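Posted in: Structural Biology > Protein-Ligand Complexes

Title: Requesting predicted complex, guanine in pocket

I'd be grateful if someone could produce the C-alpha cells for the following input. Sequence and ligand are given below.
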Amino acid sequence: MAAQIIDGKTVADSIRANLGVRIEALDSAGVRPGLAVILVGEDSASASYVRSKERACERIGIYSRDIRLSAETSEEVLLDQVEAQNRDPSIHGILVQLPLPSHIDTESIINAISPSKDVDGFHPVSLGRLAAGLETFVPCTPAGIVELLVHSGTVIAGSEAVVLGRSNIVGRPVATLLSQKSPRGNATVTICHSRTDDIAAHTRRADILVAAMGAPGFVTADMVKPGAVVIDVGMNRVDDPTKERGYRLVGDVDFEPVSAVAGAITPVPGGVGPMTIAMLLSNTVTSAERTLREDFR
Ligand code: GUN
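-- Reply #1 --
Done. Output follows.
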C-alpha cells in the first residue's frame, strides 16, 4: 500500500490560521509583531528562502524588515546591524540567513542576536535551554517536524526514532525534542552521521526516520522499515535541463520507492519547507506576545 503523504502546506495553513487569531489579539493590545530578516550576499537559494519568509510575514500581518547587505559586508558592519535590531522595540525577531560569506564568523553573529529575539533558536542560550527542557525558541525546522508528526497522528512516545545528520539547525535539536520527557517526546533516539558505521542497520529499526544530511536520494527503500514514518528535510538542487530554471528540488529520500515501503512520508517540496516558515511566524508572534507578559519584561 502506498504511504500516506504528509502535506506540509495543509498543516502550515492550519498553524497560520491560529496565528491570525493571536495577531489580531496583539493588534488590539497595540502590538504588531516585527521580524528583521538579514541577508548577506546573493546566494540564489538563500535569496529565495528569504523572499518566501518575507512574503509569509506580509500575508499574515507581521511587519517584515528586509535588510540586504552585499557579499563584501564586514563582520563589524553586520554586528552593528544586528545590534541596531536588538535595540529596536518594533522588532521582535531577528533572522540572519545562513550560510554567511566565509570571511564572517557565523558564531560571533549568532551570539550577537539577543536571545529574546532569537526566533531561529540558534543562539547558544536558546539551544542550551532546549537541551535543559526549558521554555525557549525552538529552531523552526525541528519544531515543524514535530508538528508534522503530531498532525499526521504518529505515535512518538516509545517509538524508535533515527535522525540522519547532526547539525545544530536540524539534527541535534530534533533529536533533543523527540527524546524529551514531554507529551511530544519520549522516543528512543539515535543520531547517525558521516562517521556512523552501517547507517542502514540503524535506519531499518526506525519507526520514525528523519533525513537531514543534505545528500540527494540518500535514503533508499531497502533502508526503511515497512510502515515507518519518513520525514525528508533535504532541499537539494539538482541540475535538470528540462526545467525552465535549470534545476529541480529533491530531498534526501528516494521518494517513489520509499513511499512504497513507508507508512507515511513528507514530499519535497511541500513537506517540511512550509512548516519551517510557519514556525518562524509562530516564534515571532510568541516573541511579540512576551512583550506583554510580566515575567518577560
Ligand atoms: N539557512 C538554512 N535554513 C535556515 C534557517 O532556518 N534559518 C536561517 N537563518 N538560515 C538558514
